[in-house]
Predict the 3D structure of the following.
Amino acid sequence: MKLYTKTICPKCLWVKSELQNAGLEAEIINIDHDEQAKQKIIDAGLLSVPILEVDGMFIADVKEIIAQIELITQ
């Protein structure tokens, strides 16, 4: 599981907090410092963060990300 974020991003901080509260670990990728990762999400047609990548599938909607976290922890 990977979480794509930016340096200044309140929604990203919220999702990181939800992952920690659920006891889940994700590879945190800051696209401000990783041009290749930034290009990967742009190529996927995504233009904002946070983005959660689970099994090669991108989830870009924060509500869907939170729902996915809840689903994983059930």
About this structure: The helical segments are 10-21, 35-43, 62-72.
